[in-house]
Structures are given as structure tokens and as C-alpha cells.
Amino acid sequence: MVKKYSNASNKRYVYPLPVHPTLNSNNPISWAIYLYKCYTNYESSQIAISITKNGQIMVTERESMTYLWEHGFFGTGTLSRSEPSWFSRTYNDDSSTNVLEAITERRRLQRLEFKNEREKITKRLNELRKKRDINSAEDIEGIVKEETRLLEIERESLRNFKEKQESLSASIWKQKDAATSLDIDLVNYESLELMPVEALFLSFAIPVLNIRSDDLLNTLFHENANCETINRFINKYVAYHHYRSHGWCVRSGIKFGTDYLLYKRGPPFQHAEICVMVIDSQASNDYTWYSTLSRVSSGAKKTLLLCYVEVMLNNEEVMELWQKKDLTTIFTNCKVGEVIYRRWVPGKNRD
Amino acid sequence: MSVDRDSIEWLVQTNLLHFQKWKNVEVQDRSLSWKDRKIKLLKGSPPQSSSEDNLDENGTIEEYILPVSLSQYNEQYLTLECLDEVYKQLCDPFTERLLLAIVNDDGTIVFYYIYKGIHGPGKV
């Protein structure tokens, strides 16, 4: 399962974050270049964002959208499942036949075809069974034969269906490199949207956006935003930053009702392994709340991780530092604790 | 009527038309004032019927869509009372369900049907 992705994917997603370390230990000149780049913040101020009045953070330039997706899977295409592929899907360039949405669509059609076929056979079998009840012994032999034949057809179509679905999986990884030359006249309705925590990460931790972290937060939060709102945001960001710095690819967990999903490398490579729920370290919910999360996550074959964030400052201190936008002090006073929560059925699994 | 391109109505409309391939998706004129916001519904037709759909005489289905936005740190406003008002003031009297479009702050929109009370099972 591990080696199925192609060289193209490996090559395309070679950088896990939007930084390009050029440091080569054997070459002193590269040290100088590296230091110079750090000093002048070479990578920063490159990517333009705009913030709508609803607080949505949008990247609209095609190159920047691709850049952020390819360097750590930041953001989501507003008209796509994750990678902003609407443009190539719509205008049908070469790369579009293998984007995730196209594959899902083909799978869906195959499933539909199989279901229709199965329904026809089931109907025919039911008719035969009714006949069997009212007919005499001589006819029954013929009916049984017919039944056997139908069952064989049904099995055959199930085999075909499974084969088709498998061959489709294999073809995903033969993806070509995305076409680079595109007609500029075509309208692109799609933007790449960044979660607030992603935007903060890309302006505070790895500054590549053309906005400073304090300006970003001043735009996203009202001047008189309450303490609760700010604390909630700090908790979410601390968790996000924590997993990003441990090398995970962190994306929104909205589809599974959790805060985040953790990918080992990124969505094109494998499914997310872990669902993360960020919780204030003081919080305790009733047990149905945990059950709800746990059952959904395990139903999608994911592990549920509860991430407790403790801010070791009182509310007044947090608010004061927040006003000054001294994020470093706030974040260095945070602690993260983790718990894995998994259902155990006594009769079934014994580990 | 032109739609404000910053609004969540516009986002949901664009998503339904260009991503989910819905047809005739329009923002409704009627609106409801709730707390400090104005709620507007959208109306449109999905590209194919799911098993539990009730088709009208023309073979098309029209769904009402209620757009709401969800952010990771703000509290939400939707209550039972609010839904009741939406059904009363913004829908036809025989409307059985709404499609709730939750605009997440990561660029995805997730959809949930909200039925008026218990609803019989569809074909599996």
C-alpha cells in the first residue's frame, strides 16, 4: 500500500512546507545565501491574500494557490474537495481526468450500474421463487437450474465490479504533471481559502503571506472581541502549530465533526489517520459527547485524539498580551497534552 | 438581482452551481431578521434525484437552502425557534425539509438536510 504513489506525486510534493532550505554543509557560499535570505526575509511578502467582510481569507492568484497546495497542502479550493482543481476540471485539460473528483464520479457511476444490474437479477429470482411455490415437482428442476444460472450471473457481475473499482485505484497514481500553460481568458470562479489558523501560521511561524500577523488578527477579530473567543482561537492555533511543527499535515476535520485531521504526508498520498478535537484543559464533557466523536472517527477508520491545551496565564494577562499582539509570549506559555480515546468491545477485540 | 460577492449566499450559490452542478440556484428576495442578522434562503434544483426525493409533476425537485457560516471560534445562532421562523416566513407552507449549507472557514461547505420532525425511511 505504501509505494503506490507515483514519482510524479513524489516530485510535485517534495517540499513539506513553504520553505526551501538551500543550506549545503559542504558549500560555504550556500551558508551565506541562506543567512542573507533569513536576514532579508526573502520568502516573505510573496503571496497576496484578501479578507472578505465575513472574515474569509482568500488567495486568488493561480500561481499562489498552486504554490500553497504543493508546499504543505495549505488551504482548500472553494469549488473542490481539497486541491483547487476546479479550473482544470471545468476546462478539461489533460490533468483533469485524474483529479480526485473525477475518480469519485467514475466510482459512483460504476456502483450505480452494478446496483441496477443486481436489482434486475433479484427481481427475476423472486419471480422464480413464487413460481416454485405453486408449480408441480416436474417443473421445479427447470426453475432450480434457472436460479443457479442467475446466481452465477450475479456473482460474475460482482467480480467485475470489484475488478473495475480496483483498476481505477491503480490508475490514480499514473497522474501526469498538471498542465502549466492555460488560456488566461477563461474565468476562474475558484479561490483558495485559508483557515484563520493556517493564515496565522503562514504569517507568524513561516511568514510567506503579504500580511503581518498582527494586522491579520486585527482584521479577523473585532477590537472588543471577548476573552472566550480569543481563548478559543488561541487553543485552536496552538494545537495547529503543535502538529505542524511535529511534521504532520494538518487540515480541517469538519467532514468528521472534529477540529483537525492529521495526515502523515498529505491528502494525495494516503487517508488521514487521526481526527483531532481541541479541548480546553479545564473542560470536561459528558460521556455521550466523547462517544459521538469516537464512533464517527472509528467508523471512518481513524483514531480519535483529544488535544488538551493549557494556557498558563490568567485571562487578564492573555488579553493584555493579545492587545499588544505579543503572540510569542502567549504561545510559549501554552502546554499541550494528548489523549487517545478508543472504544473497546469486551466480546470482540481483546487487545 | 446582483448578489454581494462577499456574502455567504453568494458562496453557497457559486458552490452549488459550479461544484455540485445544481441548476437555477437563486437567492430569494424574502428575508428574515433574526438577532443582528438577515437570513435569506436560496432555491435551486440538484442535478439528479436522490432516492428520498419527491418529484413534482415536471420531474424536477426544488430545494430550499439555508446558508450559515461556521467559524472555529465564534458562537452560532441557529436555534429551534429560528428554524421555525425560517419555515414559517421564508418557505412555502408545504415545505418538508431544508438543506442546511454550513460554510466552514476552511473553504469547504458541508450540507445537511433538516426535516420538520420525523421522516419515513427512503429506499435503501
From TrEMBL, chain A:
Transmembrane segments: none annotated. The active site is at Y263, H271, K302. GO terms for biological process: tRNA-type intron splice site recognition and cleavage. The keyword Lyase applies. GO terms for molecular function: nucleic acid binding; tRNA-intron lyase activity. GO terms for cellular component: mitochondrial outer membrane; tRNA-intron endonuclease complex. The keyword tRNA processing applies. Keywords: Coiled coil, Lyase, tRNA processing. Its EC number is 4.6.1.16. Residues 233-310 form the tRNA intron endonuclease catalytic domain. Residues 111-164 form a coiled coil. Heterotetramer composed of SEN2, SEN15, SEN34 and SEN54. Interacts directly with SEN54. Constitutes one of the two catalytic subunit of the tRNA-splicing endonuclease complex, a complex responsible for identification and cleavage of the splice sites in pre-tRNA. It cleaves pre-tRNA at the 5'- and 3'-splice sites to release the intron. The products are an intron and two tRNA half-molecules bearing 2',3'-cyclic phosphate and 5'-OH termini. There are no conserved sequences at the splice sites, but the intron is invariably located at the same site in the gene, placing the splice sites an invariant distance from the constant structural features of the tRNA body. Belongs to the tRNA-intron endonuclease family. NCBIfam families: endA. This is tRNA-splicing endonuclease subunit Sen2. The gene is KAFR0B02910.
TrEMBL record, chain B:
GO terms for cellular component: tRNA-intron endonuclease complex. One of its GO terms (molecular function) is tRNA-intron lyase activity. Pfam families: Sen15. SUPFAM superfamilies: tRNA-intron endonuclease catalytic domain-like. Signal peptide: none annotated. It comes from the Eukaryota. GO terms for biological process: tRNA-type intron splice site recognition and cleavage. The keyword DNA damage does not apply. Residues 11-122 form the tRNA-splicing endonuclease subunit Sen15 domain. Keywords: tRNA processing. Belongs to the SEN15 family. This is tRNA-splicing endonuclease subunit Sen15 domain-containing protein. It comes from Kazachstania africana (strain ATCC 22294 / BCRC 22015 / CBS 2517 / CECT 1963 / NBRC 1671 / NRRL Y-8276). The lineage of its organism: Eukaryota, Fungi, Dikarya, Ascomycota, Saccharomycotina. The gene is KAFR0C04040.
